[in-house]
Amino acid sequence: MLQDWVAAAYFSGDSGPILVDSGDSNRHSKPPTICGFVPDLYARRDLVGGIIIGEAKTPSDLENYHTRAQLAAFLGKCAEDASSVLVVATPWHSERIAKAVLRHVQRHTDLDDVNAIVLEQLGA
Description:
The protein is 33% helix and 23% strand. The two termini are 12 Å apart. By secondary structure, the protein is of the alpha/beta class. Strand 2 and strand 3 (51-56) form a beta hairpin. Helix 3 (65-78) crosses helix 4 (95-108). The longest helix has 14 residues, at 65-78.
């Protein structure tokens, strides 16, 4: 669902430029490692510049150190180009927690100006 949303929102429905970390990924189709973390989704925005990093989180994943470290790394990478976007996807009932965790990480890393979206359209 995250891949479909990013394809529709940023690539006119084309999922071709999107790399996804899944069981079907090989070394050519897997997202790059960013500060020791592999995001669930990665796409380079060739026409406008920047990248899109996507990370899907379950409710139990949201409030732990690993997630905070991941988000800090991904925000830092997105900060390298103002056209970049971090998309955090979570079930709708975890949207407020996801937004709070993301804001907390942004404040503590001084990356408040990085474009970050919490997508709550994933199923429970």
